[in-house]
Amino acid sequence: MSKEIFKTEINAPKEKVWKILWDDETYRKWTSAFAEGSYMESDWKIGGRTLFLGGEGNGMVSTIDQLKENEIMSFKHLGMIKDGKEDLESEEVKQWAGLLETYILESSENKTQLSVEMDLADDYKDYFLEAFPKALKVVKDLSEE
User: How far apart are CA 117 and CA 22, in angstroms?
Assistant: First the structure.
């Protein structure tokens, strides 16, 4: 496991960047860099239930670990959904369960520094190193429109 940090500077206020990140319509746009048809279902509560799903309904089961609107959102990944079934206990899941994915927005004047700190399981590292910069470019482009 390793921790990676992805960053981008965006010429927009952090409130707009936050909306781009978590509004359903724009979330689906920027996360298509990971998988077409990606979407999220959440109760938006710390310790609650958040699902990251792909177009075929497979994905991850997570919870919100930290939430401060317009500043920080941190997800703790707990397991996966495959063929409509949750898996929170297999050996595969145990290798990465508990990993964090944290979005931090810091602003100065009308600019926002978006940082994503992500614990990566070795099996997925190359995938995220390629996909995350593409996703953040979409967030930047949408935020600067």
Answer: 17
CATH of the domain at 40: 3.30.530.20
pTM of the full structure: 0.93
Residue 55, pLDDT above cutoff 80? no
| Sign of CA pseudo-dihedral 68, 74, 80, 86 | negative
3-state secondary structure 11-76: CCCHHHHHHHHHCHHHHHHHHHHCCCCCEEEECCCECCCEEEECCCCCEEEEEEEEEECCCEEEEE
Split into its structural domains, the chain has a count of: 1
pLDDT of residue 91: 87
As a whole number, the mean pLDDT across the chain is: 93
Mean pLDDT of 72-78: 97
Domain extent at residue 137: 2-143
